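Quick one: structure tokens for this chain, please?
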Amino acid sequence: MACDSDLGLAVLIDAENAQYSMIALLLTKIAKYGTTHVKRAYGDWTDHRLEDWSNELLHRSIQPKQQFAYTRDKTHPTRP
């Protein structure tokens, strides 16, 4: 596949469902298809489970976007 170096790409990440440790590999693969102009990671940044993302966001110039959780524990729904 030929690469068009002028192709502008956006990377939108669901940080609550993606592993921060895989971001470097993901961005390397995406770079083969064009230039990434927009990099955003969406998540509830008030949640301590996303703390490990902070270094990757800074190092990879990924803009964090706050998305408050509308539900609490999705894996354990409240029983009536």
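The chain has a mean pLDDT of 87.
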